[in-house]
Amino acid sequence: MSESLILTARCLRLSRRQLDALLTALLLPGLMMILFVELFGGAIHTGTGTSYASYVVPGVLLLCAGFSSGLTAVAVCQDLTGGCIDRLRSMNVRGAALVAGHVSASVARNLVSGVLVLAVALVLGFHPHAGALEWLEAVGVLFAFILAISWLSAAIGLLARSPEAANGFTFMLMFLPYASSAFVPVDTMPAWLRGFAGHQPITPITQTLRGLLLGTPVGSNAWVALAWCAGILIVSIAASGALFARRVV
After folding, report:
1. 3-state class of 162 per DSSP?
2. Phi–psi pair at 78, nearest 5 degrees
3. What is the rounded distance in angstroms from the CA atom of residue 187 to the CA atom of residue 205?
4. Disulfide-capable partner of 233 in 11, 15, 142, 148 (CB 3.0 to 4.6 Å)?
5. What CA–CA distance (Å, rounded) separates 70 from 83?
6. How far, in Å, CA of 99 to CA of 151, rounded?
7. Which among 43, 102, 34 has a CA at the least distance from the CA of 74?
8. According to the model, what pLDDT value does residue 143 have?
9. Confidence of residue 215 (pLDDT cuts 50, 70, 90)
10. CA-angle at 198, arms to 193 and 201, nearest 5°
11. How far apart are CA 141 and CA 162, in angstroms?
12. Where are the domains of the chain?
């Protein structure tokens, strides 16, 4: 645990020094919120049953988590290819601590960006109808998703042979919210796309967050969302362990 905390602090210091990447990770969520609400909201809101600012908040939160995952994958790959791993191994530091440090830093960045998204959304007309319990549940679901996707990104960083490849592999994570209920209802999509959009992890996670924040029924979406997050997390942790052992032999 102490090794993980030290390496988490290292990753956060690296993020602070890379000012351009840090500003992008923190400012992009607000810009995305403004983009969807102000540019597209007037044309889209008619089929959502609520204001588009309220409808789109969960999608922007998940979209920005996908963007941040690329930074995590690149950072892990850079440590592998830049000699950092060899220095840490000479000090008998566990590989799991290094990966956990990157994941913890990713979670911290995403939580800060999530707060910024909510702040901008409130200015743009977001009207949540959640009590204290619903807010806690929404934060828990969002945390579970961020943790799962951060570990998945770390596994991708261990798999990739270069930082550029790591960033390319995570690019698809940014597109999953578009093919879900994050920005438009699934039933407005073409028939050939609805099957995928309705059965991929982003849709139940989005529906759960939206229901909790807006006070609408969540139904079974919450359990499906948590099951997706748990499955991704377990597979990603196992893959990270196997890939790290293979890469550092």
Report:
1. coil
2. -65, -40
3. 17
4. 148
5. 21
6. 8
7. 102
8. 92
9. confident
10. 115
11. 32
12. 2-247
